[in-house]
Design a protein that fits this description.
Helix content is 67%, strand content 0%. The chain has 61 residues and is mostly helical. The chain has one domain. Helix 1 (8-21) crosses helix 2.
């Protein structure tokens, strides 16, 4: 977030867009809640975020 000088809202938007580009279907509010630890995360949400994180590892190789 700091590396790109994003606000929290911009960072959450960027994450949601990235996940959608990978074939996921996630809302910005879901990313905000996951990051903030608000509410319960569903398996689908966690899997989509895991796929997003894994995409960084795939791009690094």
């Amino acid at each position: 977030m700091k590396a790109r000088n994003y606000t929290f809202d911009e960072m959450c938007y960027s994450v949601a867009v990235d996940i959608r580009s990978l074939g996921g279907s996630i809302k910005i509010s879901t990313v905000k809640n996951f990051y903030s630890g608000v509410g319960r995360s569903t398996v689908v949400t966690v899997n989509q975020i895991n796929a997003w994180v894994a995409s960084f590892n795939n791009n690094a190789e």
